[in-house]
Design a protein that fits this description.
It holds the Pfam family DDE_Tnp_4. 44% of the residues lie in helices and 11% in strands. The chain is of the alpha/beta class. The strands form two sheets. Strands 1, 2, 3, 6, 7 and 8 form a six-stranded mixed beta sheet that branches. A two-stranded antiparallel ribbon has the order 4-5. A hairpin with a 5-residue loop joins strand 2 and strand 3. Helix 4 crosses helix 5 and helix 6 crosses helix 7. The radius of gyration is 23 Å and the shape is elongated. The two termini are 37 Å apart.
């Protein structure tokens, strides 16, 4: 699901791409020279102090760009037509040649993966700061349009596979995903500061909510909303909430175990309300604690919920631009940057690619933030949770 604030721009963007397709192609570097950028980059950056670059060149490629060369070529194929059919506006390297599509994609991926300044990224490729800025934004616009099929709500067959995955791994029948949210921190100029954007930890931030499947793919996201909002409020502002409440999502076949009926649902932490389609854990701080069935439910629920936590840790660890404090970002463009990183996260999984083990953030994806518990309990949600606990006990 695309960021909620970008719906009004979709049609305009589509028209823009169609218009540019009519422009005559701009010549780029000959095909035979397209490997030159990597040879030059590797020679220049593989031994730079401060980097722990693997000695193997293939692993070194992943270190810098987070993807294998095969996945890199696939990403290039998605954006190639848009990058070569739009006037380059001076996108040249220090030798005066137009940048190849491959070098443009590499610059953008390195900027998103490292979170380093545009000056530092430009120096690594022998281009200027303005070129890094222009190349990265052109790439984001193109991927946002051309890779949208990598982030969709699952169809019937895909959902069956997801439910089987959750049940096989965690014993949770009819589970369709795990939900969580994270803060993307930023600094804002004084004229743009407000309580809306100042979150519970006194940071200025933008929220990202994501639902992931059993393979930690994002199947729905919402972003663009200010960090001062609670996670439960963010949920209620999302299209996912409205669709689920109206019976247009999580409306597949129910399962019956004896007299207990279990419908489709997602799992989330205590910061979310307990709803018929959103399962949260039993409270454990009561005088009598929890029963054995409730404890069993909490254990399995918690393990499944960790998929979303791990997915966000991988997302922000892989695309470190999201884990660093962004310096005065354009709040209208930031949702596109976030969406692009989520698309890249999914593309890596869809291409069967693997990340290096130390890529994920070592701590929690929202380090320093305390989970705020939501006290809202829907009676039908309570019954549904009890049905699940009874099933797990048996």
């Amino acid at each position: 699901m695309a960021p909620i604030q970008k719906k009004s721009k979709t049609k305009k963007k589509t028209k823009k791409f169609k218009k540019h397709k009519q422009v005559s192609l701009v010549p780029v570097e000959p095909r035979t020279s397209e490997t030159d950028w990597w040879d030059s980059f590797w020679h220049k950056n593989s031994t730079v102090p401060g980097y722990t670059v693997p000695g193997d060149e293939a692993e070194g490629f992943k270190y810098f760009f987070r993807v294998s060369k095969t996945t890199f070529e696939y990403i290039c194929s998605l954006v190639r037509e848009d990058l070569i059919s739009r006037p380059p506006s001076g996108l040249i390297n220090i030798e005066g040649r137009l940048l190849s599509v491959e070098k443009q994609v590499a610059i953008a991926l390195r900027r998103l993966a490292s979170g380093e300044s545009q000056v530092s990224v430009g120096a690594a490729f022998g281009v200027g700061q303005s070129t890094v800025s222009q190349v990265t934004w052109r790439f984001i616009e193109a991927l946002e349009e051309r890779a949208k099929h990598h982030l969709n709500w699952p169809d019937f067959n895909q959902m069956q596979e997801i439910k089987l995955g959750f049940e096989a791994s965690y014993g949770l029948p009819n589970c369709c995903g795990a939900i969580d949210a994270t803060h993307i921190m930023m600094t804002l100029p004084a004229v743009q500061t407000s309580d809306d954007w100042c979150d519970q930890e006194k940071n200025y931030s933008m929220l990202l909510q994501g639902i992931v499947d059993h393979e930690m793919r994002f199947v729905d996201i919402v972003t663009g909303l200010p960090g001062g909002m609670s996670v439960s409020r963010l949920l209620k502002c999302s299209a996912f909430f409205k669709l689920s409440e109206n019976g247009e999502r999580l409306n597949g076949n129910v399962k019956a175990f004896g007299g207990d009926v279990i419908r489709e649902y997602v799992v989330g932490g205590c910061s979310y309300p307990l709803l018929p389609w959103l399962m949260t854990p039993y409270e454990t701080n009561g005088a009598n604690g929890v029963s054995v069935p409730q404890s069993t439910f909490n254990h399995k629920h918690g393990a499944a919920k960790l998929l979303a936590v791990r997915a966000f840790s991988l997302l922000k660890g892989s695309w470190r631009i999201l884990s660093k404090v962004m310096w005065r970002p354009d709040k209208r463009k930031l949702p596109s940057i976030i969406l692009t990183c989520c698309l890249l996260h999914n593309i890596i999984i869809d291409c069967g690619d693997t990340l290096q083990q130390d890529v994920a953030l070592s701590g929690h994806h929202d380090s320093g933030y305390q989970e705020q518990c939501c006290k809202q309990v829907d009676p039908l949600g309570r019954t549904m949770r009890d049905n699940l606990a009874n099933h797990l006990r048996q």
